[in-house]
Amino acid sequence: MDKLSLHPSFRLNGNRFSNTMELLQYVERSLPEVHPFLKTWFDGTEVLKVQTSGSTGKPKIISLQKRAMLESVLATGTFFNLKARTTALLCMSTDFIAGKMMLLRALHLGWDMDVVEVQSNPLALTEKHYDFGAMIPLQAHHSFEKLHRIDQLIIGGGVISEKLLEKIKTLPTKVFATYGMTETITHIAAKRLNGIGDQYYKTLPNIELFLDSRDCLQIKAPMLSEDIIVTNDLVFLIDAHTFKWLGRYDSVINSGGIKLIPEQLELKLSGLISERFFIASEPDDLLGNRVILVLETKARLTADYTSNLLVQIRASNLLSKFEIPKKVYSIFQFVETPTQKINRKASMLLL
Predict the structure, then answer these.
(1) Burial class (CB in 10 A: 0-12, 13-18, 19+), 226
(2) Which pLDDT score, from 0 to 100, does residue 157 have?
(3) Residue 283's domain spans which residues?
(4) How many CB atoms lie within 10 A of CB 103?
(5) Structure confidence by residue, pLDDT tens digits, 255-310
(6) Burial 80-98 (b: 16+ CB within 10 A, else e)
(7) What is the mean pLDDT of residues 47-58?
(8) d(Cα 116, Cα 123) in Å, to the nearest integer?
(9) I need a labelling partner for 57 at 20 to 30 A (CA). Which of 30, 96, 129, 133 fits?
(10) pLDDT value of position 338
């Protein structure tokens, strides 16, 4: 059997298909946003060109082996024990790797998948109960009251706030944070966030991890890539299959000789600040660089507001004296990547 053929149990929005032509005709008519991807998936070539998210730089086009993408499908099925006839929800765009891979898992593992419009509260568009789903943190936040309708949920594409983490712990749903990128063909590791939660990510089958001289993660995954995958992600490596994600090497702030990881500071402050925000730095004559806090707000910041906010941050004891922001800035609306992550560099240009 052709490895790219449809699994006999596959269903899409309640429809069965006897061959790929029937599927392509259906999505062209009923799900036109999905058609371009499936047309290239079944075009007989061995490589698929995909666009990176742009969260760490300008989005770019890279080539992935379809064989490797199928291996990723099988690894996810094994890790989460997702067999044929799994009911699944696709609420992510197939323009990017996460949405593409969700659809491929359904196609080749034989899932019963529903596709809904990509929006911040996708569960508002369906009343069904699902075995499996995938969301970004923003979707999980806005869908929280309905997340119990998904048995297993993976969340990726951004840092999950402490406030959302605390709420997730109350859910009957098994919720996992995932680690991955376009170059790794979506996630290569996951960690449980509730129930028998774990602070460390654990790899999917047949993946081995190393550190480079910067303490950044390197990934050996022969079924996904012939080359070692080099990342800019700072991690605490427990063993070859277990790690804790710390932040991005390219966003580290050197302030007075002390290296600070913005993502760790943001995680500490996420339960205190209600607005969207990020931590960055600006030049300082004494420290070299000083920590700043950038808020997304439509209201003009007053001196009293910023002063009171900094007092609250200091009083909370969440940050050490070296981590406390020295100044607060505001932006009317952050620049986002195509996958709705904050584009820090582009947003900083608005200050």
Answers:
(1) exposed
(2) 86
(3) 252-348
(4) 23
(5) 999 999 999 999 999 989 989 999 999 999 999 999 999 999 988 889 899 999 99
(6) bebeeebbbbbbbbbbbbb
(7) 75
(8) 9
(9) 133
(10) 79
Number of structural domains the chain divides into: 2
Strand ranges of the sheet holding 242-248, from the earlier edge strand across to the other edge: 11-12, 112-115, 87-90, 130-135, 150-155, 174-181, 186-192, 201-203, 242-248, 229-239, 216-220, 208-211
**Are both 235 and 311 inside the same structural domain?**
no
What are 157's two structure tokens? 């594409």
pLDDT tens digit string along 139-197? Answer: 999 999 999 999 999 999 888 888 899 999 999 999 999 999 988 998 999 999 998 76
Assign 57 a pLDDT band (cuts: 50, 70, 90).
low
pLDDT for residue 92: 95
What are the DSSP E strand ranges found in the chain? 11-12, 47-51, 61-65, 87-90, 112-115, 130-135, 150-155, 174-181, 186-192, 201-203, 208-211, 216-220, 229-239, 242-248, 253-255, 258-260, 277-284, 288-296, 327-331
Q: How far apart are CA 210 and CA 129, in angstroms?
A: 39
187 near 163, Cβ under 8 Å? Answer: no
165 shares a domain with 303: no
In the structure encoding, which two tokens stand for residue 166, read together?
Answer: 């605390």
Q: Are residues 72 and 104 located together in one domain of the fold?
A: yes
How far is residue 113's CA from residue 3's CA, in Å, rounded to a whole number? 20
Amino acid at 148: H
Residue whose tokens read 């959302």: 164
User: Hey, how many other C-beta atoms are within 10 angstroms of the C-beta on 332?
Assistant: 10
- Amino acid letter, residue 182: T
Rounded CA separation 145/129 (Å): 13
